[in-house]
Amino acid sequence: GSLSGMVIDSKTRKPIPNVVVFLEPPKGVHFPISEQDKRRPDLVVQLPQGGAFDFSILLHYPHFVVNNLEAPTGQRLILLGDSHQDHAFTLVSKGANTSAIVGAREKVTLNLRPSRLPTIMESSTYPELKAKIYVFDHPYHTLSDKDGRFHMPRVPTGSTITLMAWREDVGWLLTRSGRPLTLQAGQDLVDIEATE
Q1: Most exposed among 2, 104, 148, 160, judged by the fewest C-beta atoms under 10 Å?
Q2: Pair type for strands 19-24 and 192-194
């Protein structure tokens, strides 16, 4: 099956971009993963020279779980330094702070763990260099586009799962518990209405 829809403001009916939409399995259960979703290319971030990132949210999928063991997708999160200076970053996740320094023309690979909330990455060098990194152990996640649309291919069908939606400036759009749903074979259409 596949899951598509829109994220819209319930009052103005305007689309809402940059919403992280993802699925959660029942507690203690791991999603089945199709062969097509077991490999991912690296996620490479080029650090700009003194300006802001051209994104605010990244989605990272470094591994999946099969038979209660982690299997790598091959996707690394790589920061490429700019050509002029070092950048010092702080990464905040689950209340823990980690520091990383990316030298000029160097690359640093980050190892992050999946979480229900994103890791915050902030530059000590340039305050405008900020991003949130959502880390998943399954491929059933996406980001709504500028028109509020989202799409997830090859979603699991036939059992009850939870639809989650998170937005940077608001937090949870469907409450922390999400919306239970059962996806069917074929294309499932689900819109998410939120109050801005």
Answers
A1: 160
A2: unpaired
Count of C-beta atoms within a 10 Å radius of residue 179: 14
Nearest residue to 59 via CA among 140, 127, 170, 151: 140
DSSP character for 15? Answer: B
Supply 169's token pair.
Answer: 């400036």
| Distance of alpha carbon 187 from alpha carbon 151, whole angstroms | 10
Q: How far is CA 47 from CA 1, 18, 128, in A?
A: 37, 21, 12
pLDDT confidence band for 50 (50 / 70 / 90): confident
CA distance 179 to 171: 15
Burial class (CB in 10 A: 0-12, 13-18, 19+), 11: exposed
**Integer Cα distance of 51 and 126 in angstroms:** 8
What tokens were used for 64? 């999946």
Dist CA 117 CA 96 (whole Å): 13
pLDDT tens, position by position, 131-160: 999 999 999 999 999 999 999 999 999 989
What's the predicted TM-score (pTM) here?
0.92
